[in-house]
Each structure stands twice: as C-alpha cells, then as structure tokens.
Amino acid sequence: MNSYLPLLVVPLLCVPIQNLYLSAGQRYDLGAITYVATGTFLTTFLSDPMARPQITLLLFTFALLSFASYFARCFILAYGSPKDFTLFTIGQVWAVPALVGYEIEMRSLDGSTGIYIPSFHANLAVAGTALGVAGICGLLLARSSMTLRLIIFTESPLQYRLVFGSPLRLAWKIESFALFTYLLAGVAFRFVISDISGPIFGTESIWCLLCAAVIVRKWQQFVIAGPIVVTLARLFINQFVDSKYSLIFVYVLLALCLAMTNLNAKRASREIAS
Amino acid sequence: MQVFELVLLIVSSALALSVVSLGLCATDRCIGVVPLEILPLGVGSSLGILSLLGTGSPSTLSGRDILPLAIGCAVLVFFLHPLYVEWRLRLGGESISLMFSFAVMTCWIQAMSISTDSKSINPIIPEFLRSNQSLNLKLIVIVVSLSVLFLAANLSRRHGALAALQLSLGDSRLLATFGLSSASCQRIVLAFSILLIAIGSMLYICLQQNFSIQNSYDIIVPAFAISLSQTRIRIPLIMTVSIILMTGIEYLTKVSAESTIREVHQASLFGLVVVIALVARLARLSGRVDTVKRQCQERFQAVLGGSHE
After folding, report:
1. Rounded to the nearest 5°, which phi and psi values hold at B5?
2. CB spacing of B110 vs A251 below 8 angstroms
3. Which residue range is the domain that position A188 belongs to?
C-alpha cells in the first residue's frame, strides 16, 4: 500500500485541469510532465543542499523549458485548434523523459539524490492533501467562468471573439492555473518518491490524461473517481504484467478508453468537422 | 571536404524523409488526420525487407521476427482507417483520432521492439558504395529520392488525382467529377502512402550504420513534423522544409556534441514546427501573406522597370 499511494498523487492533483482541457476544450494534454518534472527538481534543489551543485543546471534547463512551453501553449490555446494543442503536447511527451534521462546521466546523478523512504503516514498525508487541493481546484473551476468560456471558444471561436474579445486572456488564465497545479503536483511528487530517474516521469503524463478520459462526459460530478480507477489499473499492471509489456498495456488502455469515449460522442455536421 | 560531406548527409537524409512526409501528407489530405500507425508499418516492413537481404546472423535482426507484426499492422490499418473518417465527423474528432492513432502507433513500436529483442540491422551495402565516406551511397540516395518524388508528382498530376485529393477533404462529392469514389480513393492513397513511407524509410536506413526499431523515432518525429507544416501537397516545399529541419537537428547535435540528446532536439523542433505552422496559417487567414506577396511583386516590378529605364 505504501508503494502505491505515490501513484495517486500526481493524477489526483492534475485531474481538475486535465478535465477542463479535455471535457470543456476537447484538447488532450500530454505536456503535464514538463511542469511536474520542474516542480520535482525545484523541491530537490531546495531540500537537498548536497545535490545543489549537480542539480542547478538541470533545474535551470527545466525552468527554461517550462517557460518556453508556457508561452507556446498559451499561444496555441488562444489561436490554434484543439488538434494543434494536442500535437504540441505530443512533442512535450517525446522530449521530456528523454531530456530527464540525459540530464541525470550527464550530471552523474544516480537518480536517488537525497534518497529517503517516505513512511506510510507521510504518503497518506500527502495523498490526503492532494485530494483536498484537487477538490478545492475543482470547486474553483466550477465556480469560475473559465469552463463555460472555453466551451464557447472551442465550439465557436469567431463568436467568442465578437462577444469577449481576444482569447489570449482566457488562455493566459487557464495555462497559469495549469502551471500552478502541475508544479504543485511536481512538488508533492518529490515528497512521495525516493528517486528522480528518467523512467519515473515516463508515463506520468499518460496516467494524468487517462484520469480525465476514463470519466464519461455526462458524469462530471464523479471526476474524482478517475484517479482512483486509474491507480487501480496501475496497481494491476505493476502487479501482474511483466515490466517490458507494461508500456504496451498503458497505451492499449488509452486507446480503448478513447475508442469508448468516441463511440458515445455526437456526430457533428460535415462543415464543422472540416 | 568535411562541410561537403555534411551537406551531402543532410540533403540525402532530408530527401529520404521527404518521401516519407509525402506519404503522410497524402493521407492527411485524403482522410483528414494522419493515421500514425502507417509509420511503424512502413518502417517495420522496410526493416524486414532489408534484414531478409542480410546475412542472417543471430545477433542481427531477422525478418521473421518483424514481418508478421508488420502484416498484423497492415490488417489493423485496413480495419481502423474507416473509423478515422467517421470519427473526424464527431465532436472533438480530429483531436481524439490523433490521440488514438498516437496510442496505437506507440503500442505497435513497443510490440515490434520486444519481438525483435531490440536487435538492429546492419544494411548490406556493396563495398564500393561504403568507400570514400559513403559519398556514392549518399549520391545514390539523393538520386533515388528525387526520382521517387518526381515520379509521384508526375503520376498524380497526369491523372488529375492530386487535384482530386486536395479537394476531397472538403467535399468528397467533388471526387465524382474525376470519376472516383471516396472509399476507393482513400484505399488507393493509403496503399500509396505506405509504399512511399517504406521506400523513404529504406533509403534513410541505408544511410545508417545500425538501425533498430527503437530508432524509428528518428524517422517518425521529423517526417511527422514536415507533414504538419504543409497545408497542401507541394513537393518543393516539402523538400525545403525537410532540408531546413534536418539542418537544425544536425546543427544542434553537433553543437551539443552528444548523439544521445538527438531525440530531445527532434522533439523540440517538432514543437517549434507546430507553432510555426500555426503562425503561417494565421498569417494566411488574416491576408498578411497576400499583402506581403503583392508588395514584393510591386517592388520587383519597380526594380525591373527601373533597370529597363
């Protein structure tokens, strides 16, 4: 149980914003990993003075990457289609795990910098806090006009511009919220993991996306069930599937989930689709 | 001499990738999304064919390991492609089709990687092509790639199929003007694209010392980026973008002096291409491209007029 609680932390914290991007914006965000990794390295930098000389440049690289990604994502969110946003995040999911692996290897970090084995109670406290923060974030999003505006903007961008003006302000608000949430998830993640090697960040983005994707769009009130279902699936894969096949299982799960979602989606007119 | 070799390497790999990108562009124009699983199918079959031509030692990749999976992928593509056409018409369709396709592609690459035990192939190239820093080999790749691109362009122009393809995404009824049905056109384009991807991959693999299925992202990421930057199928533009992109990747890899970070460079440039393509689209929609074109034409005519006077 102690080793599975950490699996819950990042998906729990990321689910409100993932849900906003997916259900309200029809956008798939695989780029959470960029900000999560930055948050994790920032916490390592602050909490472990011994590792500071090695981790400074690594943190600088990721801060720069997060900065560039933030502006690019804001721009694409405001002026691009959902497909453009999804494509950009695919680039992020290709780049970040490779960069983490390379940087850790280059800086001679053994991946277990400042290693400590978190206790069960510490993990439980972090997971409980994450649940609370996710609830508050979800509540804030529900009470704000961001969800509604993103739906309007996605469905009819021209009408949105006529009524609300430039979409940049909306994009800036949403992306800032995403940056804050994902960084927080990265910080929390550092408290529950004992190493920071490349594979740790490998599929975290996919699991975050799956949390929002497994929930049928009509059942938005059960959004918190997503991370729990996904963590159970992760637990099953870690327990029963050989590690070399685990990545295949993750992507099969994603494909099945997307296929099920799309079968229930409404058919648009040909003009909207093209 | 070193600069010349580097230029030749960039041009030859860029042209090989242009062939792959042309295949992706064709499916994008015809179906509306790129079914990404045709990439492992193309790369897998080219690896299978090249390994069948090899010596067959136990340490190198055997065609028997990879060809059944490539055939399985072909069957999957055959069943999935009508779904993409349908899914595009659903709400959020393009995004979900893309993500589904990405998931299937990654699954298939992993499956191929496991079934081949990450073994690589060492393409059997005659010694006279390997000598002199593989200059002859690079020249042959350039000539073959250009021939394939020229042939593809010529073939599609002659039958009016390219025009039909460009129009088919907006309204499939327009295809009837050219005496083609939508379903048969899609099937032909898909087969044609897979063939182009296999040829392009084979040419790219021939330029490498070793190539395993895990290296297929070296083909997939840049080729996908090049196809994303295109709004219409224009072969000179595909070639230009691929040469620029390959120059960027080679330059970054040389600057960082680390080949292990090559995939990070590729992915970063992929993101950059998405942003640049979006900026170009916005500029065209807002009419700025036309304005700049008109101004350039006027200045050019003024310069010509001045020189005549």
Report:
1. -65, -40
2. yes
3. 5-273
Q: Within an 8 Å CB–CB cutoff, is residue A28 touching chain B? A: yes
**Positions of E strands within B105-246:** 120-121, 211-212
| Beta bridge partners of residue B121, listed in sequence order | B211
Quick check: ipTM above 0.90?
no
Task: Return the structure tokens found at B81.
Answer: 């492609």
B149: which residues sit within 8 A by CB, 6+ positions away? Answer: B15, B18, B19, B22, B235, B239
The C-alpha of B81 sits at a distance from chain A's nearest C-alpha, in angstroms, of: 13
* Calpha distance A240→A71 (Å, rounded): 41
Print pLDDT tens along chain B (309 aa).
577 888 888 999 999 999 999 999 888 877 777 888 899 899 888 888 888 776 666 667 777 778 888 888 888 888 887 777 777 766 657 788 888 889 999 999 998 888 888 788 777 666 666 666 678 888 889 999 999 998 888 877 766 666 666 666 656 666 676 676 777 777 888 888 899 999 999 999 888 878 888 888 889 999 999 998 887 788 888 999 999 999 988 888 887 766 667 888 888 888 888 899 889 888 888 888 888 888 888 888 888 776 655
Judge: A86–B170 Cβ closer than 8 Å, yes or no.
no
A84 at B interface, C-beta within 8 A: yes
C-alpha Rg value of chain B to the nearest Å: 21
Coil, strand or helix: which one is A267?
strand
3 state SS of B208: coil
Q: Please list every residue in chain B whose beta carbon sits closer than 8 Å to the beta carbon of residue A251.
A: 103-104, 106-107, 110
Find the residue in B nearest to A93 (Cα): B267
Interface residue B267 vs chain A (CB under 8 A): yes
- Number of structural domains chain A divides into: 1
- A-chain CB neighbours of B107 within 8 Å are 248, 251-252, 255
Domain boundaries, chain B: 2-308
